[in-house]
Amino acid sequence: MIKVMLQKKLQDRVKELLQNGTVSLFIGYEQGPGFVYVSPCFVRDESGAERLVLNQFCSNNLAGYIHEYNAYNRRIGICVKGCDARALVELVKQNQITREDLFVVGVPCTGRIDISKLREEYGPKLEEIKGISETERSFLLETVRGTKEIYKEKIVFDKCLSCTHPEGFEYDILLDELKIPEFGSADPVQKRVEEMESLSTAEKNEVWCSYLSQCILCRACQKACYACYCPECIFDKAYPRWFSKISTTAQKRLYHLIRAYHLAGRCVDCGECERACPAGIPLRLLNKKIEKETKKLFNNREAGINQEGVLPLNTFDIDDPDFFL
Amino acid sequence: MNNSIYLPHIATIKNVVEETFDTSTFTVAFDNKNIQSSFSYLPGQFVEVTVFGKGECPISITSTPVKNEYLELCVRSSGKVTDALHDLDVGGKIGIRGPYGNSFPLEEVRGKDIILISGGIGLAPLRSLLNYFLYNEDRYGKIELFYGAKTSQDLCFRREYDLWGAHENTAVHITVDKATEQWNGRVGFVTELLKEAAPSPRNRFAFVCGPPIMIKITAKILAEMGYEDSRIITTLERKMKCGVGKCMRCSIGEKLVCQDGPVFSLRELNEITDEFSR
Amino acid sequence: MDNREKGVERKIITRDDLSKWLEKIKGHFDLYAPVRSTVVNFGKIERVDKICLDFMNTFLPPKVLFFPQTEELFSYARDSEGIEVKRAEDLIKERVLFGIRPCDARALSILDMVFGGEIQDSHYIEKRRNTVLIGIGCTESLNTCFCSTFGIDPLSGEGTDIFLIDNGGYFTIKEVNTQRGRSLIDLGNTFIKTEKVDHREEAGSVTVPINIASITGNMEKVQEDFWNNTSDPCLSCGICTYVCPTCHCFDVEDEEKKNGGVRFRTWDFCMSKDFARMASGENPRISKGERYRHRYFHKFDYFPKKYAVVGCVGCGRCISYCPVNMDIRKVLERIRENIQK
After folding, report:
1. Is the peptide bond before A40 cis (omega within 30 degrees of 0)?
2. What predicted TM-score, i.e. pTM, was given to this entire model?
3. How many angstroms separate the CA atoms of C97 and B126, rounded?
4. Tell me: the pLDDT tens digits for A58-85?
5. What's the ipTM?
6. Residues of B with CB below 8 A from C279's CB?
7. Subunits that touch chain B (at least 3 Cβ pairs < 8 angstroms)?
8. Which of A236, A239, A246 to mutate to test the interface with B (most CBs of B within 10 A)?
9. What does the pLDDT read at residue A309?
10. Which residues contact C293 (CB under 8 A, 6 or more apart)?
11. Residue ranges per domain, chain A?
């Protein structure tokens, strides 16, 4: 019931923002091909505000669209949960947009549902799910076959289990009080990083090559990532052709490693890369490792948490150990 | 199992003429004499030229199918493959696949008068057409060439203007956009030349080839002069890869430039349900 | 609805015997069948017990076996004389592809028109010629399936050599369509029985019937801003193109190695910004709306104009795998509404 109120509140606010010209575009969520399938929604006039939804399936990080739309829209309104707001902090810090050009609507979030986990818990026929409500510990799915209760911990994204919000981020509108959800178990990714670290190089290579053999270089991870805003990706540059377009496991490994390195110090662990990947590749694992190493080397800085601070890979300090770069 | 539509034949560069600072005409011949003698093409068609290790690019054939001992390809240095091609000298080896694409409508213009309007390197495919007309003069009417380039340094095929103009029924009008010391001739846009001459559309076809903006403006002027869109013929350029209609890179509306083009009449272009009717 | 026919004589093979038959086939041919890892894909079978029959459809469509994601076209070698070019040898042993669905079988006949025709792509054609297709009908459908929209019968083996229906404990051999299919049946004659069975044939149903006929040929009537607005959520990634059984755009590149090199082709997607960009920098489809429009026109307008068949088979993969849940059926419905206005 709270969710329905928030959804209505959002719709009303967005209507106002468009009516009084505060924003020329608002990016939110709308229902896709089924209740559990949500699509990003682009609203440009008041009548469109009714399409907006807000529920536990709204998982996309909408900050990824900003670089594409900020050239032709002033201001851009966007609704974000805590993890997405970290991307906004970074975008401003990386000079991709000014804070004034954004109108940020904060959305309280107590965990978003991972569709692949839901499929395992509920079964393949997700089209049966027509509604949702929640208690403190569970989601109550309203289905054509009655209500099904599932513990939140079982179907929220791994990242939600260890939720982090940016500090002191000022939302233009906050739909409701922000709470950091608490779960019994923690995000398993840190443990998985440690497990990988305990393997030999040859073993690591084998594990990653087996994951990456399924990669089809669709570039969805890149396109879903807020931080991949290069107008021409180095993998696409034709002349000079820095990287072959050949689709071998070695080339896929190279692509993912280079993308992970390009994200060092900037990845906010929104998990969109892994969610977007159609082949089920555990990309967060790779990015988490890079994050761990970056933190060690660059004074524990975590992307998107503080609004101050420098970008590790973009800043040169006279005391840097390398005498160039 | 040696057949593949993607396999190029090896050819050797026999001669290189520098037309401008970035454009050269390469005379090439297939190493295999049988392939060379049986290679038959018509003006308007193109070949896919391979610089091994760099890639392939489509180049319109600028020679005319009269002598089949060689091909002439006029190439501007504008990307990975064309830059590499310019690094090759006489004796250098390239690959050639083709000929591909459709040709200029030679039958339709029999007995008609012809105007050719061109800018910069756009003269290359029209040269093939013009030389074909001149070689078969009795089949065609009056021929008028309007050709312009940015400066006199950018004019291509200068060595041929007098040869063309020497033909009784051929008039050659050359202009440059910007005057420089070396140039004593006409200054102004080629479209101005066209407007002044104002050749009547009666019994006449117009062939236009050049940068997209020039084609647009010229087409407009011709329309104002009363030319039907079926009698304004142009060649289109699109990014190409396979050249044989499989990879879809050169698609324009429902047509493929490598198969249904590169020669299109304005009427055909207007009918194509292209991106927002551009 | 139960349209079980009681006591009908059919050629059947039990699940256990199917494994034995496939084992025997594997002795003579390279066998490709669905295999599950993080996703289900067609893979070369070393062990028949690795075959996954508990699947609706594979992640990558069967096109990957005839038009591989990366394929060498030829190699070239430099020596003192010059350059020699050698066509890539496709190591094509005779193959059997087991487990193809009716939508994908139709998609292969669509690709046959693209890679065949007046100019024959021998790389694709030879692989097609050397592959026998054993199809399995769909007695269930996914929420995203809409093959019937295109006249595809989920219980018909059109385009396959042999067509099976899964009846639980056993498979019915519903169709044997070719000589090659008959040879394979002969190979399995110790396993294939003729029995009176309660025959179940229920097709999975299409969830959203779409009137395709009203769309083809009328798509120019759709307003320009329709495409810009509809394509807003699109990420311009390559998923829908790569998982589509009829999409076939590719890139061609050279790669220099020592004293020579190769030319290969590789899948590409027209949704990418620089797909049509020319060396001059000019880009005829620079906006996302134009590229999105091109995709729909190619499938539902250009394809029918050129080949008299729509370039979509309703497999629903693009809907399942799209990271932003774009739905081709919804877009088609909105196109239809837009045309009627």
Report:
1. no
2. 0.94
3. 51
4. 999 999 999 999 988 889 999 999 999 9
5. 0.95
6. 57, 78-79, 82, 239
7. A, C
8. A239
9. 76
10. B275, B276, C227, C231
11. 1-185, 187-316
